[in-house]
């Protein structure tokens, strides 16, 4: 039941595959979580998911909906060359920079099933530091040495930017878009979200420490190396499966309309 004043969007549960519907629900949940945890930027960033059983197609937010409004049925279904395969009956289309960034990822990385991009204050601030992300905290060592950097060349509206972004990211799952923000990808929506959660907090902690006008206690290089090694892919459990169900329970307890 739509709340009064809410956008009216035709439910499409019955007209898409189970796999696509699950991807839609998880992506809509991620928009709500991103907003709920203070990581949204009104309508200016984007989170996406590949449609698992529809090669070359991915889901993206309509350009104009707040993250708190996103529902499973509201997400655009887009092809890698910008074809719109499904669009809700709303005056909102494809976000040009969103399409460029996310299509770049799905074109270049068959392993990527979901991607999240933010413009948080902490993410933008660390993206503007020449030193980038420092291994100052345990959380930061999860990302240190396995985060890509991509230089700012203006808003990513030109499809030619796609190759440059794919080249910067390479095989990594985390990227600091210099002078812009943060980007994470994963083999699931949960994995991309949990990565963003950690990267965001590492940036927040670094800025808080650097703002204290006192000497920073950088762990010795061998400790940083040991810690980053313990977070290496395959060395620890996969992030996501343990955290995601609880996050969905949290959403369901407050506002389950993301599932519509
Ligand atoms: Zn951006």
Note down, in words, how this protein is organized.
This protein is an alpha+beta fold and 260 residues long. It has a single domain (13-243), classed as Class II aldolase/adducin N-terminal domain (L-fuculose-1-phosphate Aldolase, 3-Layer(aba) Sandwich), CATH 3.40.225. The chain has eight helices and eight strands; from the N terminus they run H-E-E-E-E-H-E-H-H-E-H-E-E-H-H-H. It has an eight-stranded mixed beta sheet, sandwiched between helices. The mean pLDDT is 95. Zinc ion binds next to loops. Zinc ion binds at residues 45, 97, 117, 119, 180-181.
Number of domains: 1
C-alpha Rg, in Å?
Answer: 18 Å
**Helix count from the secondary structure assignment:** 8
Each distinct ligand: zinc ion
Strand order of the largest sheet: 4-3-2-1-5-8-7-6
Shape: globular
What does the average pLDDT come to? Answer: 95
Quickly name the level 1 CATH class.
Answer: Alpha Beta
Portion in strands: 5-15%
Q: Any idea what the CATH architecture is?
A: 3-Layer(aba) Sandwich
The helix content, as a percent range, equals 25-40%
Strand count: 8
Task: Give the full name of the CATH homologous superfamily.
Answer: Class II aldolase/adducin N-terminal domain
CATH topology assignment: L-fuculose-1-phosphate Aldolase
Unreliable residue stretches: none
Structure class:
alpha+beta
Question: Helix and strand string, N-terminal first?
Answer: HEEEEHEHHEHEEHHH
The largest β sheet comes out as: 8 strands, mixed
